Amino acid sequence: MTIPRSVADVLTTRTLFDVECIDRMYLNVYVPGLQYAPSLVAYVHRQLGLPVASTAPLARITDRFSAAVHRFADTRHIPWVDFVKGQRKDDVMHEHLQHFTAAEGVVFVGRAQEKTPLFRTEKRRDALAVITGPVTTATGTRVPGLRFADQRSHALLSALLVFRLHPNGFTNKDLRTLTGELRGLDPEKVSAGQMTYDLRRLKTRNLIVRIEGTHRYRVTNHGLDTAKFLTCVHGRVLRTGLAELATPTTTPGRLRSAATTYCNAVDTLTGTAQLAA
Prior knowledge:
Distance between the termini: 79 Å
Number of helices: 10
Shape: elongated
Radius of gyration: 33 Å
Oligomer: single chain
Strand order of the largest sheet: 1-2
């Protein structure tokens, strides 16, 4: 009969294993709380003292444990066996027992590669950098980004808001005409090559997709959300805010007042600390 015992039970009673005869014994020790993501995150933050909950330090702990087991086997000249797929462990044990002459001890250390569920963390890319910075495709092609506040990029984003309302999508020519008008240019002076370049920038970032079997494109949900957010930030926040900060006035607005208050606080702090501002 198998009697489950916790690690706490063993440590509390200082129980030792006293075995006279045994066929095989499996001893699995684990911390139940660390089988759940929230507890694992807390362990990384509190126990390891790391600011980012990454599984990378856990891998180093595993590597140190593995290295310690290897040292144990090496210093005591204990055979090390890496089991291969389909290999019966009992057969390996019987083979080593034939050459084991000691009264007691470790016959060999075996390592089996078994599947087990693991936690995994991944590095997420900066969402803004994906839109505004260059990206490299799977084929190695470098596609420039849609630079924020750039007139040409802003015209492309604004055009997406219009084309999303077109049930049949839009063409290269449609994009050239609308973005040219938004930029105050004669559309005829904007080349088809420039539009192909812009279409590639939009497609690479999944802002638009090509309608199968046609030369038309449609705006994706991601494209609509991205264009709507960036155009609002550009038109309603950046331009308005920067204009208020740059324009002298006898009746400053809330942003100008807050900026003045911040500057005064810094001057007061540096003066109190007897530092040159």
